[in-house]
Amino acid sequence: MSKEEHQEFLKLVNAHRAVLYKVVNLYIDDREEREDLVQEILLQALKGFPRFRRESKFSTWLYRVSLNTVFSYSRKNENRKKAEADLDVPIYESQRSDEAAELYYHIRQLDDVNKMVVSLYLEGFGNKEIAEITGMSANTIGVRLHRIKETLTEKMNQRS
Amino acid sequence: MKDLKDIWSQNDDQNINMPEFNSDDLAKLKERSDSPLKKLKRNIQINSVFGWVFLAGFIVLLFIVDGLWFRVFMTILCFAYVAGIFFNRWIIQRYLTEIPMDDSLLDHLKGVHYGMNKAFRAIEMASILIYPIAMTAGFLIPLTLENKLDHFNESAFLWILLLVLFIVLTPACFYLNRYMTKLAFGKYVKQIKDIVDEMELVE
Fold first, then answer.
1. Which of A5, A27, A35, A68 to mutate to test the interface with B (most CBs of B within 10 A)?
2. What ipTM does this complex have?
3. Other CB atoms closer than 10 Å to residue A143's CB: what's the count?
4. Cβ contacts (< 8 Å) between B104 and chain A: which residues?
5. Residue pLDDT, tens place only, A37-50
6. Which end of chain B is more exposed for a tag (fewer CB within 10 A), N or C?
């Protein structure tokens, strides 16, 4: 990779670095493992950057690389029944409202595939883009999203 | 009740305290071995290194130990090891080369699953051929060293013993190999398969 490409990569990845942290925080509980995975995603993105075609947005491509890395790496801590307090310890400090924190908590309780679909939707991706990132059909995404939104809204309503 | 997107947008990503990456961070990135695909590749590479070491040992034995049959089987064993080493190389190139990360997630996971399963099956098939040759050579070493090869040729008992060893040890080693592979990678392969199935589920 040329020096210019290197600089371009750095600029783009810094502008969209929230993607890396968001994906890792959603899937990994262990703080040290999160840091390792951020490094791993960065490495995979750096290696894949020469193949990045400017047809799609960098954020879409980075989401894809991040999800592919997180899903295909053996997670050391698979125990989902961790204490609730442990579930919401982000690698970075974010300003979250109570409502947003609760939604985040409920999303983390979903299974891996639904978690991915809904987080992409909430980040503003359309069904077609989500289908492109995941490889699932746009129809399937639509049906799943409908169901997940119902579940999440119900859980949020229970609280209020 | 607010829209979920409105609630989600309350996450203030602009004020989050995330460190920026710099050139030094990129320079420090190293190839890691967290991926089971890479672990399998590394295991096969280590296996090949041991293959070379054993091969060197066999060649030394070939010159030190006298005896026609021993040399014949050791030569066959040497060729089998060379074939095994090249076969390992082929498995890595054919199934365990890097799978592009910028495919869709489903294609990516299918690629990983396919590559690992193919590699496992190829290793199992190769081992079926190599175990009997290794057993025969191992069987002949003490007989040759003690100059008892003529005794072996005339002894029906020893021939039957060798045959029994083939019948018992080849499948035993085959299943042991399968069990060890399952122990090391089975959970991961199942995890990948479950996600693929879940993603392919027609709603």
1. A68
2. 0.79
3. 12
4. 64, 132-135
5. 888 899 889 988 98
6. N
